[in-house]
Amino acid sequence: MEAGEDFGPWLARQLKLADMTQTELAQGVEVTRAAVSAWITGRATPRPETIERIARALNTDLATVHTRTTDTQAGLPVGWYHRPEHADGGRELGNAAAFAFDADVEVLARETCQNSLDERLTDNGRPVRVRYTLHELTGETLARFREAIRWDDLYPHFEAAADQEQKVGRVIDAGLRDMYEHDRLVLLRVDDYNAAGLTGDDYEDGRFAAVVRRQLDSHKSGRSAGGSYGLGKATLWATSRLGLVLMNSTLSEPHEGRTERRLVGRLDLPWRQVDGKAWAGPAWFGRPDPESPGASVARSWWADEETVESLHLTRESGEPGTSFLIVGAHDVASLVDASHVSDDEGEDDDSIQRMHRRLVQALGKNFWAAMTGGGDRLPLLEASVRTLRNGEVVLPDERVDPTVTQPSRTRALKAFLDGTTVEQLTESGQVAATTVPLNIPVSGGGRGSLGEHRAVLLVTDAEDADGKANRVVAMRGNRMTVRDAAVPGLSLSINPFQAVLLAGDAAGPQAPFAVEAEEFLRAAEPPEHNRWGQTEELTLTYSPSAYRRIASLTWEANSAIKELVARPKKRSKAGGGRLAPKLIIGAGKKKRRPSAATLPVLEELDALVLDSGAWQVIGEIRIPAGGHAWRLVPVAKFDVRSGPRPTVEWADLDGVDNCQVVDGTLRFSEQARTAKFRGVTDPTTHAVRTSLSGLVVELRAREGESLA
């Protein structure tokens, strides 16, 4: 017998697909039922002449039985299964998970690339390779593809959904009109290689069921995984105007003895009525499962190469991973970019080129760090984009190069991986590194700290290609950009810079409490994975105040950045200090009184509850021209729902930047445009427990100082 799936499991599945019993096969092949049972259990193999009779009984060719790399075409044909309406009359007018994201290829790239990173096979040390292929079909090529997906069977369902006056219906209607009026359809395929693939049973727990069958199921491989909500896969369907995605997976672990060309499709439509019958919403493209009632439920199937090619799902190699084909892909942001196109023209022929460019930009913006290697560490990711029209190349395969999309930040990360960072920036092109603390809270609502994680902070000169300067991007183990924010309160004299904050596993194998930091920060990410802050998961896992640990990390990082980029202060000339008090300029002028227009404003406040129960606050103040003359008093109060707010006394109040505290008032440095102070409350003056209330900080003019 030739290489392929073991004969016994393969034959058992063919009998199910053909709805044929072992006895019926035995009669057709002219052997005993015991012989068929022995083949299926692996206790015996049929002779060559018997294999010919088995092929005839299964209505297939001899090569299919010998190779066993695909199923026979006997019995139940591939088609669409639509879920019947709910027995209780309930209706879903669309997939709620898809509404969490915009139909934007930047969002798609972020979510799908993150998922591929999460499913990277790590044992071989190689990066996961992700390729995006935009493919516009027209004319005969489009007609052949519609035939391959059984379009005539689907069209009544699309038509019924499009007639409904609601959001999903309007999107589907626009997709249908565009295809028929312009005779074109855009496919967007996302292929990953060196990834796990859609492993597992069609229905039981596993990657396949999590993606194809379920909502809000996040089946992730490692602790550094980006996803935790199970929402990211919904971007695939959100990007399709028709709500249709086809999948071809090469498995890292065999299923039913096979690994290659596991195909399935899923269609997400709203509730609808077709020919007098109501349907709940989703539908699946596959082979009817003979074990389901009436063999009506569609499941994945092992396709032949010809079928895979007709569905535009051919993979370039047998390396594990999955190909997702988004049918009717569109990008709202690309349409906005093309606002110069008249309404009569609609989407012009350059629409796929614009989508191509936006994909490259999005990958470079969000995953430059994952594409960067150094020292003995390879990149985690390789990504590329190409564009076709009817199989012909429009834009060739363009590999995303992080040194082009984010040169400064890539230089910073590579220096860290290579071990070539410095403590202070003294020359152009250097990368300064330091660490900043993140106190990990204990889980379960306690106030204590589990330990101190040291996140790595990198700072280097900015280049024009980076985009906006003077920003800090933050990430953890999978090295996807989570937070991208400006650094506030910078001096106007600094050189432009870029900063990178590496937390959790991204901080390196020697970073203390990296595992705990990964878990903590992952819980602090919303479904969009675009910031760290208060989330329901963070509150439930740790405590309602746990997010303040992140605020403290942000403040520590910003403070460290300011120290690293500050220019050394020039020394005064010899004798200047002795002469200055004797020189009086403009002594005859009347001192200008501060006015309301110059009143400093408290712009930002970071807070942290200490183990003692005290609040620690860091306040940043914007100072208008002339505002340094004000004398202001920070006043802390508990935030209550009704009645006057109880005042809280300060146990400690200090000036941090451009100010000092004298007799409880803030005095600002001349010419300063920003200032920062730090205050710690006295827990003995707290009217209520710290955990039961919020804190409000006000700036009051010192008693006797007028706004006139």
| C-alpha termini separation | 99 Å
Could you list the spans in which at least 5 consecutive residues all have pLDDT below 50?
223-230, 338-348, 569-591
Assign an overall shape.
elongated
Which structural class do you get from the secondary structure elements?
Answer: alpha+beta
Overall pLDDT confidence: 83
| Total DSSP E strands | 26
Number of helices: 20
Q: What is the makeup of the main sheet?
A: 12 strands, mixed
Helix fraction by DSSP (H/I, runs of at least 4): 25-40%
Strand content: 25-35%
The radius of gyration computed from the alpha-carbon positions, rounded to a whole number of angstroms, is 32 Å
Characteristics:
elongated, 20 helices, 27% helix, 26 strands, 12-stranded mixed β-sheet, single chain, alpha+beta, 5-stranded mixed β-sheet, 708 residues
